[in-house]
Structure formats: structure tokens, C-alpha cells
């Protein structure tokens, strides 16, 4: 993956198309597609800066009033599910881990605490994710640790401490199934 300081939506789409054409056993950056893709662009990515001086990522997602989740969460009281904002943070951290050299298939591994003090409504234009990288471990599995914040049109609405994402080489087992 070409290491740049920002990525447009078109560049993220090209990376996804490259991912889809990779042969079995090869590993590159992966992001969900379709409705589950919560990133439209990476505004800034660096292995320096952030709250801990170890790196940061700022990504954005464009919100439209007709977004799929508003029709079902909740009818008559539309709001973006908080779990989608959390997933946007995990997707961002997974991108960071791949960008920094991690190899394998990405998996969200958890979060310490999440606090919600605002929401994304249909009149919102942009959701922004800001990650502060704490550390990256590289052994058989690469794992990134970060704290993150979610903003709706510039107003902080969520915070998440101790986000964890891993990249696992080979075929990761589904937790709890032994498969």
C-alpha cells in the first residue's frame, strides 16, 4: 500500500477494488464496502502527532438525510446508530494499522469505554473521526491501540478509550466457534 498523508474517496475505492482482486492468501488493507463503509476520506494520517505523539488519523464520512440507517433507526425519530460511529473509529484504526505496515485480515478487538454525549441527525453534513495512536505491537498478530473521538459538524459527540484493532495473518478463527 502506498503510504500517503491523505486519501480521497476515489483512492479508498481504488484500494477496495485492489483488495477484491487479490489472490487467496495475500493480504492488503481492507475496509467494509457498501452500507457498512463509514469512511469517505482520510483527511490526515501520520506516524507522529496526536495526543500521545505516536501518530494520528483524521477521517470523514459524509452524511445525507436519506442515509439507510435513518429510515430504520428510529422511524419517526431518525438518528445514526452509535455503533456505526464506533465502527467508523475501528475502520479508521484498521486503516492506520495497514498503512503503518500491518499485514493480515483486520478485526476489531475491542474498546475500553465509550461515552456518548451527542448524536448524528439527518441535518448533519459530516462525521469526523480523530484517532490518537497509543501503541502498535507487531508479533504473530499486529495490534493497534488508540483513543478516539467522533465529531458531528465539528461538535464532539462520542469519545472512545482503548480502541483495539488487529491484523491476523492466515484465516482468523471466528471467536467462540473454533472455526
From TrEMBL:
Keywords: Lyase. The keyword Lyase applies. InterPro entries: FabA_FabZ, HotDog_dom_sf. The keyword Hydrolase does not apply. GO terms for biological process: fatty acid biosynthetic process. GO terms for molecular function: lyase activity. It comes from the Bacteria. Signal peptide: none annotated. This is 3-hydroxydecanoyl-(Acyl carrier protein) dehydratase. The gene is fabA1.
Amino acid at each position: 500500500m502506498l503510504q500517503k498523508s491523505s486519501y480521497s474517496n476515489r483512492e479508498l475505492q481504488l484500494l477496495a477494488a485492489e483488495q477484491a482482486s487479490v489472490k487467496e492468501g495475500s493480504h492488503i488493507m481492507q475496509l467494509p464496502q457498501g452500507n457498512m463503509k463509514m469512511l469517505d476520506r482520510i483527511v490526515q494520517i501520520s506516524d507522529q502527532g496526536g495526543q500521545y505523539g505516536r501518530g494520528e488519523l483524521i477521517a470523514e464520512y459524509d452524511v445525507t438525510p436519506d442515509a439507510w440507517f435513518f429510515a430504520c433507526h428510529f422511524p419517526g425519530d431518525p438518528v445514526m446508530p452509535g455503533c456505526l460511529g464506533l465502527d467508523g473509529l475501528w475502520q479508521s484504526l484498521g486503516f492506520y494499522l495497514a498503512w503503518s505496515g500491518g499485514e493480515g485480515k483486520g478485526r476489531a478487538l475491542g474498546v475500553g469505554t465509550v461515552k456518548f454525549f451527542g448524536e448524528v441527525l439527518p441535518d448533519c453534513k459530516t462525521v469526523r473521526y480523530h484517532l490518537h495512536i497509543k501503541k502498535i505491537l507487531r508479533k504473530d498478530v499486529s495490534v493497534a491501540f488508540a483513543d478516539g473521538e467522533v465529531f458531528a459538524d465539528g461538535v464532539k459527540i462520542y469519545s472512545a478509550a482503548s480502541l483495539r484493532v488487529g491484523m491476523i495473518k492466515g484465516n482468523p478463527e471466528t471467536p467462540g466457534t473454533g472455526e
